[in-house]
Amino acid sequence: MTRPLRIEYEGAWYHISCRGNERKVLFVDHKDRKQLLTILAQSLALYCVELHAYVLMSNHFHLVVRTRKANLHKFMQRFNTTYTVYFNRRYKRIGHLYQGRYKGILIDGDHYLLELSRYVHLNPVRLKECSEKSIEEKKRILQHYQWSSYQGYIKFKNRQDFMEYATILGIFGRRDTSKTMGRYRKFVLNGILKEMSSTIWKEVKGQTILGGKEFVEGTYERYLKNRKRDKREQAQLTTLSRRPITIGELVKEVATVYGVPEKELYKRGSSYPEARSMAVELCRIHITGEMSLSAIGEHMGGISAAAIGQNSKRLKGKVQKNKKAQQTFEALQKNISGLYSK
Prior knowledge:
Elements: E1 12-19, H1 30-47, E2 49-56, E3 60-67, H2 72-90, E4 103-107, H3 109-121, H4 135-144, H5 150-154, H6 166-169, H7 178-193, E5 204-205, E6 209-210, H8 213-224, H9 234-241, H10 247-258, H11 273-286, H12 293-299, H13 305-321, H14 323-339
Parallel strand pairs: 4-6
Antiparallel strand pairs: 1-3, 1-4, 2-3, 5-6
Helix pairs in contact: 1-2, 10-11, 10-14, 11-13, 13-14
C-alpha cells in the first residue's frame, strides 16, 4: 500500500486533520472537547509547535500549525495517543479512536496560509444540515461556534493562550487592533458569500504538498530527492519528481493515436467526439495538478468544470463496455507516462 510522504523541517507549515474511526464521534460532550484542547496546549508547549488555527467538529478536527523543530510526527504521536488514552478510559473502551494515522499536508505558508485558515474556520457551516440555511444564519452560527480559533480572531476577550494570532492578522495590518480583526472577519464571511468549496485540496501534490510549482520543486530537491526510498512512498515521490506536461503535448498525443487534426480536439461539437472525450479526460487526470478544472475547460473549448466531470463519467462507462476503447485509453495512458521523462 502507498502512504503519504512525511516531510519534516524547522519552520514548516502544515494542515493537520484527524477523523474518528468508522466516522464515529471523537467528542461525546464539551468535557471531551475541553480535554482535547488541554492536551493540545500541553503538546504544543512540549514540542515547540505553533498553532495558528483549529476547529473541532463532532467526528473530526483540523489544525494549522508551524513546527519550530523538525518534529511533527513526535508532536502528533503524543497529542493523539494521550487523547486516545483519556477517551478510552472515560468510556471504558479499547481499540483505535482515529481513522488511520493523521493526515498532514505540508503547505506553502506564503501563499496558502490565509485561505487555509478561512477553510478551517468555515467548517461549522459546511455541514450538510447547514446547506439550506441563509447567509445570515450561517454568519450567526460562526459567530457563536465555541470550538474554533475563529472567536479569538474577531474578539480580544476570546483569545486563548496556546494560539498564535499575529501571523495571520498581520496580513491585514502591522498592528493587532480591532480594525485588523474586522478585516479578517470580513475575509472569512466573504467565504460564505462565495459559497466556497474545498477545491483547494485538488491542488495538493503527491497527497502531501500544497503549494505552487517552485515550492513543490524546492521541497523535493531539498528534502526528498536524495532520501532513502520507501516502497510505500514511491508513487508520491514519482509524482513530485516528474516534470509537468502541457495540454498541447497531451492533445497532440491523442490526435496522433486517433489520426485526427489537433484543432478538432479543442472544439465543442467536434467531428471526432471519442477522441475529444479522451483528450478532455486525460487533461483531467494529468493536468489538474498544474491547472484548475475551470482553466482546463477554457482551453478545451470553453466548457465548465461540471462538464469535465460528466465527460469523465460517460467515458468511464464506455471504456468498461467497449474493449477497443479500453485498449486505446490504456495505450494513451502509457504514451503520456512517457512524456514525463522527456
